[in-house]
Amino acid sequence: MKLSRRCFLSFVLGGAAGTALTPLPWKLTDDLSIWSQNWPWTPVPPDGATNFVNSTCELCPAHCGITVRTVADRAVKIEGQEENANKTGGGACLLGLSGLQLLYGPTRVQGPLKRIEENGTIRFQPISWQQAIDEVVAKMAELRSQGKPQSVACLSGRDVGTVPQLFKRLLKAYGSANFVSMPSVEDAYASALRLTQGIDGFVGLDVENTDFILSFGSALLDGYGSPQRMMQAVGRLKKQRGTLVQAESRLSNTAAKADIWLAIKPGSEAALALGMAQVIISRGRYNSDFVNAHTEGFDSFAAMVKEKYAPSAVAEVTGIAPEVIAQTALAFAGAKNPLAICGRGKGQTPVSLKEVLAIQALNALVGSINRKGGAQTMPTYDYLNWPAVELDVTAQTGIAKGRLDGAGSDKYPHVGSLAHRLIEAIDASAGELQMLLVAECNPCYSLPDSDKVKAAFEKIPFIVSFSSFMDETARQADLILPNHVYLERYEDVPVMAGTVQPTIGLCQPVVSPLLNTQHLGDSIIKIALGLQGNIAKAFPWKNYESCLMETLGDQWPLMSDQGYWASEAAASSSERGFSTASGKLILMNGTLGAIFMAEAPVTASGGDYPLQLIPYDSIRLTSGYVGTPPFMIKTVEDTVLKGQEGFVALNPETGKSLGLASGDMATLITPVGQASVRVHHDDGVMPGVLSMPRGLGHSAYDSFLAAKGVNINQLIGTMEDPASGLDAAWGIRAKLVKA
Amino acid sequence: MKQTQTQNQHRPKRYGMAIDLDKCTGCGSCMVACFAENNVPFKQDETDKLLSITWMRVYKITNGKKFPETEVCYLPRPCQHCAGQHEGHSPCVSVCPATATDYSADTGIVSQIYTRCFGCRYCMAACPYHARYFNWWDPVWPAGMERYLSPNVSPRMRGVVEKCSFCFHRYQLARDKAYLEGKRAVSEAEYQTACTQACPAGAIVFGDLNNSEHAVYQIVQPDAHNHYKSKNPYAFRLLERLGTNTKVYYLSSREWVRKAGDNYLANEEPGASHAPNQHG
Amino acid sequence: MDSALIPEGVKRCALWKFLLGLFLVGLVLAWGVYAMLLCWIKGLNQTNMNDYYGFALWIWADLAVIALGGGAFFSGLLKYVFGKDDLKNIINYAVLIGFICYSSALLILAIDVGQPLRSWFIFWHANVHSMLTEVAFCLSCYFAVLTIEYIPLILENRQVDKVPFFHNLSHNMHSAMAVFAATGAFLSFFHQGSLGGVSGVLFGRPFSYREHILIWPYTFFLFTWSAAAYGPSFTLFITWLTEKITRKKLVKDNTIFLLAKISGWMILTYITAKSADTLYWMFKTAPAQGLNWEFFYSNNALYGKWILFTEIVLCGWLPALLLVFKPTRENAFLRVLATLLGIIGVSLNRWVMVLQTMAVPVLTFDMWALYMPSWQEVATTILPVAYGVILIMISYRYLPIFPQEKELNPINATAEEAAA
Ligand SMILES: Nc1nc2c(c(=O)[nH]1)N[C@H]1C(S)=C(S)[C@@H](COP(=O)(O)OP(=O)(O)OC[C@H]3O[C@@H](n4cnc5c(=O)[nH]c(N)nc54)[C@H](O)[C@@H]3O)O[C@H]1N2
Ligand SMILES: Nc1nc2c(c(=O)[nH]1)N[C@H]1C(S)=C(S)[C@@H](COP(=O)(O)OP(=O)(O)OC[C@H]3O[C@@H](n4cnc5c(=O)[nH]c(N)nc54)[C@H](O)[C@@H]3O)O[C@H]1N2
Ligand code: SF4
Ligand code: SF4
Ligand code: SF4
Ligand code: SF4
Ligand code: SF4
Ligand SMILES: [Mo]
């Protein structure tokens, strides 16, 4: 027994020593570490030939030039173009940089889908493209045979470029005037141009050459217009010791960088502008050459501001001391090339006509209209030389019925589109709208009072979405005909966004379409062909690509090489003249007088709601058609979003008076809705104001974005500008109670 | 051939950055450019900033005053590529037990070798800038999204530390190209980091602090005899007093911002010249 | 049933009692093992550590057990090198406690690193400038030494000892023990020190950074010193606890008093140095970095000034004095209290040097970071305690740990018969 135990122990010990001397344990140890360096679940990106494709970013109205790096058949990085019309010098905003997460992201619609209701549950069933187009055609043909072509409308993210225009053309040939585009400050600017200059066009801001920017809440450094161009311009302005004045109730990044921050009461921008005009006129500091030679109605304008907008009165409304108003106005007038800029936040919401007229009047008073460093009048792009559409009788009668949103009617003569009125029309008289085609926009999320928008959508019998993403609106659709995303398709995108150099960007396919999607242009053409007759005849193109190549004609080779076409910058000369009856810019007449004399629209008020909730735009969040990609969400500060909870920022004083400490949960209540929020104390917010970003609180998209924070559009109501009919909402009365 | 190369390399490079805080708008493009360039992973919830990998992080700092005297400033923070009191004695490099992070005497760049790192996190404890991040989770990309991953930078596995590399792979590509084209050196424009390139405000300038032709040198005016302290009165480095001798310089015309770059006793003026710690 | 394995002439509890105890502690152990496996399989996301708190609860436990395990090397040094022969009566236990502490420390490290399968890179790709490299080398070598010191004890088991080979081996090892003890002391000096160096070299962390002597920061010396000072206190405390649990006197008072006296004087000298170091840091080191010392204790209740007072006065000066003065040292209550305070003091020191270092912001616009360990961290931190208890239970039952036990607890013949 003893012997065997001894043997056993020697065997074990000897074995252990022996094994340690063999390479085996060492090899195993090494192999294990190598395995840990090569875990099969950690991806190894395949290599391949590297290429660079010039294209255009379509993710915001700036339409920057981009260069996409590809490796074999994969796009691996988006960068800004070194040379381009947007003067971004290789830069790109964080949304543009995140584009590949949209391309390869999980929220894309994989192919055409049809909504099915089974036992009360709704789901989307994949269908073929043929079936998808057939169903749209059948529905449209049916409505047309019932003599109701005007009951078909289209809601589009844009209205310039071939694709929106193909859509417009389809509706026109079909017999509907209801092509409605999503609102932005461009709408207000366009109305102002029509009213004061008699011109159809947009306003270009010559920020490269100004030495004084007076911004009325425009988020120049947070994504206004062409975000990168604005940042470059502000950088240049500061370097050259120019002046930036920001009138805004919140210490935005723009206000933080401004030389003068006018912490103004929300909604009083027009009053401030007119008050400044009053100072400039009463001190005789206006540009008399320009005013005398190129404007009409100066005297009555002067009388109006004198009567109603004396600094003391304006101080009351705006909360800015009269001497500060005067000093700033005089500094503005004293600058060589001053420029007043209109449009709150990113400019994705309109302002009242009064506000844009007042701000443009400031530019006119100092002669900064069509002058270097001023506000340029830019003509509408007109490169689409398509043959006229022949209208059959059905089409003629349909179009004669006018627009559901009333834009251009006697009631709203100054505007082209009124999306929120379309929603109201649907809400008020169900049945008038039988079919809605939604392209490149997400109204169920991004329009104010979004719950009401959703409810209105419920009443539309047939909704077709062309969205590439499963967004809030696509979820309400009966059919989804997914478009390629911008990195998979050709498309021309004319740049507005305050450019002074007419530019048409070209999107080019960087990768071939990944999913079973179809170009929106092709979908439109196929629908038109399916409807036959005059409608088909209006679309003489084989497909979208041939339509685009034909439209761009000679420019095509250049554009597909560098990714854009840009013309000379508009001539900066006040001699360009205006298309009014007198050939002069109208400062004041009967129509304008009525607008100036009207009080600013106010939000629902009442003692119940002691605070004001003001949305703000953050460059780290998107709030329009495309959802915020994961990379961007990652940059959002933990004082804006924490876990799934969104914050409302308020002044510590306000917090104290409400008994709310930073981090506390609270219920935010407005006349329109309520939401659960966390409180964040922020000294940059005006006492009495609650500040919240646009872009959170999605119910659609993926888990990287959905259900995070609050959609402020659910809390804000529409606020119709009586003069234009535009929804000029800038906030709402609110209260905040401890949860 | 070898001779020439050696001569070319005679003067070591010292890559560094100057970030103009007057220009920086806090947009965050640099952060995203870095994520995209370097295959930085992301999770469903990135709101816990202590668990969120951001090689470049933009801090928001304020002057602490009340409305409307409040001021804010954004401060982008990549790895500072500390040189320490004697070249290569970075806080992190000096402590890494496995030489998984290293100081390049040729470029001044602090590297990180993911496959060697065994995740002890000592380097993280050493870095006062929180520039280092640990992969607490396996990196996971939503199905299909791994297709955008760049082959130039390997995705990291769980359990290792990662940080800004000054886009070292871009240097390597530029260096190879310059070599193949028979060129003598990598030019300023050839090697730029992704964040520099992306910054819409042009706030970041990147280049060789030892090359008087580079913009970064001209802005910073580094004093090679005084641990590369800047001679520009508007420039400062973060925590200069600790003797980290960083290669990322910040510029601001505002004194409170410059003061926020370091710790000062009540009676001290910012930028006051102090002999930094001498450490072993 | 297992009486054949139990040392001759001593009494042990019934096997069922022993097994029940083992089972209960085993449950705790299993819980810890489960948490450990979670950390290995799912990764360190199982903890509540984060990028600010890369070192947390169990690294503190690691440092603390190594400090407490210092009783082994220091008593070894005293006995084998300085010839304090009286300590032979407690040296076995000191070695066992040391062995437990060090094996625990290694286990904790294996759980702590993100890539345990590659942790050997620390040796293979060693960076000689890193304090952690020094720690790794010295720690593993010293663990080997402790194992060598522990083996003869195992060989003294009644049955093992019957094998002539083991008997001889044990005998020979005993005679070589002085060499090992000296080696161990030397290694310990370095790894205890380098553990102190770990935080002391962090010149980016003004809270823990200390000036250097040659290549070593002051903390290097303070850690070694404190381990030598408080380690014996821990040995004494565990011995007292074992005596209470077994309800037996196991070590004679003269040995206890001697070790207590040594520990007392060591603590007294240590705490003098520590106080000087703290004052120098407060009024010289920290201000040179632009920081007022009060700043480090200003943000939250956990890291208030109380922690400084507790560590240095309450758990430093007080136990030192209690152990130095004969009357208090020989008073059982006060002596045990002093050792307990000492244990708290050194553990608090390790806590502060690691966790408070992580909590304090350095950038002016950064924030304090506090963290709460997850249950997995708590379980893995308790795991070594359970393991230690089990190892002590087994060793105590089957090995002649306490040479004086037989003499102090003569077995009453009738009782023995009754038991049989
Ligand atoms: N610690 C650690 N070591 C490693 C690795 C690791 O991951 N970790 N990886 C290994 C691998 S994969 C590699 S490729 C090697 C890389 O290791 P090395 O080949 O040593 O590469 P570098 O250190 O990057 O650069 C080498 C030297 O070349 C100089 N140099 C640059 N351009 C030129 C030139 O045009 N001509 C000449 N003559 N010199 C030039 C640089 O200044 C530098 O001094 O390291 C290996 N060693
Ligand atoms: N930031 C930075 N970038 C660098 C460098 C640097 O120093 N810093 N160095 C450059 C140099 S010199 C080099 S060589 C490269 C190295 O770059 P990589 O080739 O990316 O090297 P590693 O980072 O070592 O990662 C290699 C990866 O390859 C995978 N892998 C390993 N073995 C195998 C295998 O057998 N099969 C397959 N399919 N996969 C395997 C593993 O997933 C591992 O993560 O990095 C270059 N890029
Ligand atoms: S600014 Fe707009 S167009 Fe330009 S890169 Fe960003 S999202 Fe794209
Ligand atoms: S990209 Fe430029 S402007 Fe934007 S945060 Fe970074 S450094 Fe600042
Ligand atoms: S910033 Fe941090 S990670 Fe970068 S070199 Fe310095 S200590 Fe290392
Ligand atoms: S975590 Fe990695 S890089 Fe950092 S010290 Fe440890 S081994 Fe070195
Ligand atoms: S230098 Fe490169 S790695 Fe570093 S922050 Fe910038 S983009 Fe990221
Ligand atoms: Mo390599």
Question: What does this entry look like structurally?
Answer:
The complex is a heterotrimer of chains A (739), B (280) and C (420). By secondary structure, chain A is an alpha/beta fold. The relative contact order of chain A is 0.15. Chain B has 280 residues and is of the alpha+beta class. Mean pLDDT of chain B is 92; it is low at 1-9. Chain B is built from eight helices and twelve strands. The radius of gyration of chain B is 19 Å and the shape is globular. The longest helix of chain B has 13 residues, at 168-180. In chain B, strand 4 and strand 5 form a beta hairpin. Chain C has one domain (2-419): Formate dehydrogenase/DMSO reductase domain (Formate dehydrogenase/DMSO reductase fold). In chain C, strands 1-2 form a two-stranded antiparallel sheet. At the A-B interface, strand 3, helix 4, helix 8, helix 9 and helix 25 of A face helix 2, strand 2, strand 3 and helix 6 of B. The structure holds ligand MGD (2 copies), iron/sulfur cluster (5 copies) and molybdenum atom. One iron/sulfur cluster (SF4) binds next to helix 3 and helix 8 of chain A.
Architecture blueprint of SSEs:
The complex is a heterotrimer of chains A (739), B (280) and C (420).
Chain A: H1 2-21, H2 24-37, E1 50-56, E2 65-71, E3 74-80, H3 94-97, H4 99-103, E4 113-118, E5 121-126, H5 129-145, E6 152-156, H6 162-174, E7 179-181, H7 185-197, E8 201-205, E9 212-215, H8 227-239, E10 243-247, H9 253-257, E11 260-262, H10 269-282, H11 288-294, E12 295-296, H12 298-308, H13 311-318, H14 322-334, E13 338-341, H15 353-365, E14 375-379, H16 393-400, H17 419-428, E15 435-439, H18 443-446, H19 450-458, E16 462-465, E17 479-480, E18 491-495, E19 503-507, H20 520-531, H21 533-537, H22 544-552, H23 556-562, E20 564-566, E21 585-586, H24 590-597, E22 611-616, H25 630-635, E23 641-642, E24 645-650, H26 652-658, E25 665-669, E26 674-681, E27 689-693, E28 732-738
Parallel strand pairs in A: 6-7, 6-15, 9-10, 9-13, 10-11, 12-21, 15-16, 16-17, 22-27, 24-26
Antiparallel strand pairs in A: 1-2, 2-3, 4-5, 4-17, 8-14, 18-19, 19-20, 22-28, 23-24, 24-27, 25-26, 25-28
Helix pairs in contact in A: 5-20, 6-20, 7-15, 10-13, 10-14, 10-15, 13-14, 17-19
Chain B: H1 2-8, E1 15-20, H2 29-37, E2 57-62, E3 72-77, H3 91-95, E4 101-103, E5 110-112, H4 122-126, E6 133-134, E7 161-162, H5 168-180, H6 194-198, E8 204-208, H7 215-220, E9 222-223, E10 229-230, E11 235-236, E12 248-251, H8 255-259
Parallel strand pairs in B: 1-12
Antiparallel strand pairs in B: 1-8, 2-3, 4-5, 6-7, 9-10, 11-12
Chain C: H1 15-42, H2 57-68, H3 70-81, H4 88-112, H5 121-124, H6 131-155, H7 158-161, H8 164-200, E1 212-213, E2 216-217, H9 218-246, H10 253-288, H11 306-324, H12 326-329, H13 332-359, H14 375-398, H15 405-408, H16 413-419
Antiparallel strand pairs in C: 1-2
Helix pairs in contact in C: 1-14, 2-4, 2-13, 3-4, 3-8, 3-9, 4-6, 4-9, 4-14, 6-8, 8-9, 9-10, 9-13, 10-11, 11-13
